[in-house]
Design a protein that fits this description.
The structure holds two protein chains of two kinds. By secondary structure, chain A is of the alpha+beta class. Chain A has a domain of 158 residues: SET domain (Beta-clip-like). Helices cover 19% and strands 19% of the residues of chain A. Chain B has a single domain, classed as SET domain (Beta-clip-like, Beta Complex), CATH 2.170.270.10. Chain B is built from four helices and 14 strands. Chain B starts with 5 loop residues before the first strand and ends with a strand. The relative contact order of chain B is 0.19. The chains are: A alpha+beta, B alpha+beta. At the A-B interface, helix 2 of A face loops of B.
């Protein structure tokens, strides 16, 4: 579920839509949480969809570390990538604001954590834009991403958290919730590198999609709802 | 899934957003069909939710005839009420344009056909001719618009149907029968787009 003080806006025919803040949202606020109505689909389930729906999932879902497609029910699925995103992922279920977000500002996340199977050209235009975003970025950049998440989490207990009642927390997310409840916001958070799906290599996907159905884990694999970042 | 020639637009601060046609959608076009990404929430799942979800459920889901809540995955869940709706038929598992919907016109439902519960009546400001003023839970369903539905469903094979790949022939046959039309229309197929 995306933060309530956001709305969907059309950006351009190239970028499509994006998610924008309608009010001030302070650093440390969870901008998105996994909730019980976000659909988690196996690759087989995606393959079985009529083509129109399959395209929707390929476009708007992301792939979690177990190879499942996470299709957010709300406009959280329209979050765009930025090389200087407004939020970082924590565990499977959280995206936390790493700086203050002002009204009218776009909410963005890091696709490098979402188990993309193809490098894409980035035109985010932010300072430090990498120019391209690919499956290998995580190995190189996770310490920076972890540090930003850790820094933001220190503010998590002192700001309003409207999404907390709605989170669907997995085992590792409970550690995060417990730390927050105790006010222990300097506790070590799970690292981004632990949410990488093994075996994702660049170029293993054809067509326009960033995520590959063909290379996804078969449905027989044990289903765990570990996740990485936010939806696109 | 909602008809592809639609988009969400802001109506005003009171109504919020609505669903608008980006191209003309002729009467008899399927404007929505229940699909596998829509979630049908049965009572046990609803009972397991905390009180924090109550307002969310009212806002984003509708009741089906079996007492389930239905959460549409796309813009369909943002369709507004009108006492003179442009679309109807949701209980049939699909909806059809009851009138020609012009570009820029809103796709609407009569919420009175959506099995409102006792708390869900509301004062209507749709401004349509014949606006009921108060939309009340009265137990009526899609049959309220039976003549309009019958006329629209008679046109199913006459107009382009971008949603044809989403609906099964069996669903359409059942829908036609439910409004008193012959189950099959002159052995003609839908014009998929």
């Amino acid at each position: 579920m995306i933060h309530p003080h956001t709305e969907l806006r059309f950006i351009s025919s190239t970028v499509g839509h994006g998610v924008f803040a309608t009010a001030f949202i302070p650093k440390g606020t969870f901008l998105w949480v996994l909730d019980p109505f976000d659909r988690i689909l196996t690759a087989d389930e995606v393959r079985a969809l009529p083509p129109m729906l399959k395209s929707a999932v390929e476009r708007w879902a992301y792939v979690d570390p177990t190879g499942h497609f996470v299709f957010c029910w709300d406009h959280g699925r329209y979050m765009n990538h930025s090389c200087r995103p407004t939020s970082r992922g924590i565990g499977d279920a959280f995206e936390i604001a790493v700086r203050d977000v002002h009204p009218g500002e776009e909410l963005t996340c890091e696709y490098g954590i979402l188990n993309i199977a193809k490098t894409f050209a980035c035109a985010c235009g932010q300072p430090g834009c990498r120019g391209s975003v690919g499956p290998g970025d995580l190995e190189r950049l996770f310490p920076v991403w972890d540090a930003e998440a850790q820094d933001a989490f220190q503010h998590a207990a002192s700001v309003s958290q409207p999404l907390l009642p709605f989170v669907k927390a997995g085992p590792r997310d409970h550690e995060v919730l417990d730390a927050l409840a105790r006010g222990a916001t300097d506790s070590a958070l799970p690292s981004h590198k632990d949410y990488r799906r093994d075996g994702v290599t660049d170029g293993s996907v054809e067509g326009d999609g960033l995520w590959s159905i063909a290379s996804s884990t078969p449905a027989s694999t044990a289903r765990r709802s570990r996740r990485a970042g936010a939806a696109r | 899934m909602i008809h592809p020639d639609t988009e969400i637009r802001r109506v005003d601060d009171v109504v919020g957003i609505g669903v608008f046609a980006t191209k003309r959608i002729p009467r008899g076009t399927l404007t929505w069909a229940l699909d596998p990404l829509d979630q049908i929430l049965a009572a046990p799942r609803l009972e397991g939710l905390g009180a924090q979800w109550e307002g969310w459920l009212d806002h984003h889901t509708y009741h089906d005839p079996s007492g389930n809540r239905v959460l549409c995955w796309d813009a369909a869940r943002s369709m507004n009420h009108s006492c003179r709706p442009t679309c109807g038929g949701s209980d049939l598992g699909f909806e059809v344009a009851l009138v020609d919907i012009e570009e820029g016109e809103q796709l609407t439902n009569d919420y009175g056909t959506l099995h409102l519960d006792a708390r869900e009546g509301f004062a209507c400001r749709c401004g349509a001719p014949g606006c009921r003023g108060l939309v009340e839970p009265d137990g009526s369903a899609w049959e309220r618009w039976l003549p309009e539905l019958r006329a629209a469903l008679a046109l199913l094979t006459e107009v382009p149907q971008p949603l044809a790949p989403i609906v099964t022939p069996a669903i359409l046959r059942a829908g036609r029968r439910a409004v008193g039309l012959p189950a099959t229309a002159k052995r003609r197929r839908l014009h998929a787009v």
